[in-house]
Design goal:
This protein has 98 residues and is an alpha+beta fold. 43% of the residues lie in helices and 14% in strands. It is globular.
Length: 98
């Protein structure tokens, strides 16, 4: 079994928080422009594989990510990896250069 990636941990948390089965997530992906079997989702969660760009975009829509939260994909040593980028803090009210 591959090491669980931050993306895999995020995906598991999202599913658990919403009490969504892998089958239900598979159906939701299809409704949001993606396509993945429950078995493929299981591989994402175990870190054995990563979703395609289309499925990554569909996941963002399924889980209704905040505008400043992003899923990203990168290639490292010929392997595709996914990562969740948390919201970036902006300037606080009243802060700013004068």
């Amino acid at each position: 079994m591959a090491d669980r990636t931050p993306f895999a941990a995020w995906l598991i948390r999202q599913r658990e928080d919403r009490r969504t089965s892998m089958r239900a997530l598979s159906d939701a992906l299809l409704n949001h422009g993606g396509k993945a079997s429950a078995a493929a989702i299981c591989e994402w969660e175990s870190g054995e594989s990563s979703p395609t760009l289309e499925n990554l975009a569909a996941l963002a829509r399924v889980f209704d990510l905040a505008d400043d939260e992003r899923l990203t994909m990168f290639d490292l040593a010929g392997e595709r990896h996914c990562e969740v980028l948390p919201p970036q803090p902006g300037p606080r009210a009243g802060e700013g250069g004068r």
